[in-house]
Amino acid sequence: MKPIRLLMVDDEEIFLSSTRTLLERRGLTVSTAGSGTDALQVLDERPIDVVVLDVRMPGMDGVETLRKIKQRHPLVEVIMLTGHATVDSAVEGLKLGAFDYLMKPWDLPDFLDKVEQARRKKEAAEERQRKTAKGADAGRSRREGE
Predict the structure, then answer these.
(1) What letters, b where the CB count within 10 A reaches 16 and e where it falls short, cover 80-96?
(2) What residue ranges define each of the domains in the chain, with the CATH number in brackets?
(3) What are the b/e assignments for 21-34, b being 16+ CB within 10 Å?
(4) Measured between alpha carbons, how far is 27 from 115 in angstroms, rounded to an integer?
(5) Tell me, what DSSP letter sits at residue 84?
(6) pLDDT tens, the chain, 146 aa long
(7) Minimal CA–CA distance to 99: which of 109, 86, 111?
(8) How far apart are CA 46 and CA 6, in angstroms?
(9) What is the SS3 string spanning the chain?
(10) Long-range Cβ pairs for the range 19-27 (8 Å, 24+)
(11) Model pTM?
């Protein structure tokens, strides 16, 4: 199985750096972004399976970033990362299509489990999309041959 392509989005550079190192040691392919705007740019440039997105960031916050991710990359799964004071924002994120949310500080096994579940959901959605497109192509070919 190919490694999970993860994008970590947080405005705390030390957190991003240490988390990236930890997750890469576990076999994940990790990209990082320090803002919502940077995250959207990364998503436009390379394939990502799962985004872990901090709710509270200066500028474009996590909820607005989630909205834009789901508009531009609807199959990418997003896990909201939140502190105790921002649970309401994480719940709002779930309503907008986030896969799940994690509380800071997070537990590594729980984190890895949620990321894997999110990746499986994305892969299932991609497979459904391929089958739908394949079925539409086959139907079109039959109609064109009539």
Answers:
(1) bbbeeebeebbebbeee
(2) 5-145 (3.40.50.2300)
(3) eebeeeebbbbbbb
(4) 13
(5) G
(6) 688 999 999 999 999 999 999 999 999 999 999 999 999 999 999 999 999 999 888 899 899 999 999 999 999 999 998 876 567 777 788 888 999 988 888 899 999 999 999 999 999 999 988 888 877 665 555 555 55
(7) 111
(8) 11
(9) CCCCEEEEECCCHHHHHHHHHHHHHCCCEEEEECCHHHHHHHHHHCCCCEEEEECCCCCCCHHHHHHHHHHHCCCCEEEEEECHHHHHHHHHHHHCCCCEEEECCCCHHHHHHHHHHHHHHHHHHHHHHHHHHHHHHHHHHHHHHC
(10) 22/108, 26/112, 27/3
(11) 0.87
Tokens of 73: 């990359």
**Tokens 């064109």 -> residue:** 144
